[in-house]
Amino acid sequence: MPRPPILVGMSETPVKQQNTAAFYGQAVASFAVAMAATAIGIARLNADAWVRAFLGIAVLYLVTSAFTLAKVIRDRQEAGQLVSRVDQARLEKLLAEHDPFEKL
Asked: Cβ distance 10 to 89 under 8 Å?
């Protein structure tokens, strides 16, 4: 019974990039401080209520847009890494099967 070809250099486990808990905590704390400072600044602003409401809505829109942009950039980067990994696996398979001493 023939054995399946061995693919040299291929890993069965996907590459996972994990952030540390400290980095995650710092990012969450930084976001919370920025949002709180902005909310306090808008609330204490010496302006009419409609101006403060407009600035509050603008900040919320900016935050949701920033999250969406970050997600789109991350998704595009992950898709590029997946294509790159598939291409690398194909190349490694070809190199593993290639015999330079075989007659053409």
From this structure: yes
- Condensed to tens digits (0 to 9), the pLDDT of residues 33-85 reads 999 999 999 999 999 999 999 999 999 999 999 999 999 998 888 877 766 77
Residues whose CB is less than 8 angstroms from the CB of residue 85 and which lie 6 or more positions away in sequence, other chains included = 15
Phi, psi of 19 (to 5 degrees): -85, 155
Distance CA 48, CA 60 (A): 19
What integer pLDDT is reported at residue 57 of this predicted model?
97
Count CB atoms within 10 A of the CB of residue 89. Answer: 14
More confident residue, 74 or 104: 74
User: Quick check: 64 and 74 in contact, CB under 8 A?
Assistant: no
Q: Which amino acid is at 52?
A: R
Residue-level length of the chain: 104
Contacts of 59 (CB under 8 A, 6+ apart): 35, 38, 39, 42
Q: Which residue has the tokens 């194909």?
A: 90
Whole-model pTM over 0.90: no
